[in-house]
Design brief:
This protein is α/β, with parallel strands linked by helices and 238 residues long. The protein has eleven helices and eight strands. It is globular.
Length: 238
């Protein structure tokens, strides 16, 4: 199976402008997401400067930027400022703040203003239901379930993603996103669950090219790789 056979859209997840440009040029990427942790890893020191440069370099594709505040009043102001950056901008809102207080009332207010939200750090079906009830019909929104992090704690994310897809697709304004992709096969799992989007980091994106290779071809490629390494190392057993 080829990537072109899948319904799920691949978004690049990161905060390195050069990686974002390469991802867009590959033709495989349909959008972008980032978050404060990725910005920290990338050494971003000026949030708005980074956001404006990203929008300038990867024009024409949806991109999500996250609020930074832990206070809902400040979050709302940040969300408006982020949204004003462009029509293709989604504002990432965590499902709760760091104290565990629900962001659902804020999501409702933002949706009523026509702001496109990407609700992130979702782990349960109840959280999905709570968000869907708040979304206004005149907006397009993203529901980001951290499927990979669920798998990291020994929970199969497939049942949750499958049920969430059914709920999201009952509404015309909600797209389901498989977040925290760990390996290429997650893309195919996300597609089978009915997810609309999956976010992939640069290391995962770099592995997409061999998709469509047969197992036999992959076997030979692997053996040839071993052979090249042996020659480079100059090992001898006899």
């Amino acid at each position: 199976m080829k990537l072109s056979d899948l319904n799920v859209h691949i978004y690049a997840d990161g905060a390195v402008i050069e990686d974002m440009i390469r991802a867009k040029e590959s033709g495989m990427i349909k959008g972008f997401t980032t978050n404060p942790s990725l910005m920290k890893q990338a050494g971003v020191t000026d949030y708005l400067a980074f956001a404006k440069e990203a929008l300038d370099k990867v024009t024409g594709l949806p991109i999500s930027f996250e609020v930074f505040s832990d206070d809902f009043s400040t979050m709302e102001k940040e969300a408006q400022k982020i949204s004003d950056l462009g029509d293709n901008v989604f504002v990432k809102i965590p499902i709760t703040n760091s104290k565990g207080v629900s962001s659902v009332p804020l999501i409702k207010r933002l949706s009523e203003k026509g702001i496109k939200v990407n609700v992130t750090a979702i782990f349960t079906l109840n959280q999905v239901k709570d968000v869907l009830r708040m979304l206004q019909p005149n907006t397009i929104n993203i529901i980001s379930i951290f499927a990979g992090r669920l798998a990291d704690i020994g929970i199969d994310p497939i049942p949750l993603m499958t049920e969430a897809a059914k709920l999201c697709h009952m509404k015309e304004n909600a797209l389901l996103l498989w977040a925290s992709c760990r390996e290429v096969f997650n893309i195919f799992e996300a597609d089978r669950c009915g997810a609309d989007i999956i976010t992939c980091t640069t290391p995962v994106i770099s592995k997409l090219k061999p998709i469509g290779t047969t197992p036999e071809e992959r076997s030979l490629q692997t053996v040839r790789g071993f052979s090249r390494d042996v020659l480079t190392l100059g090992f001898s057993i006899l």
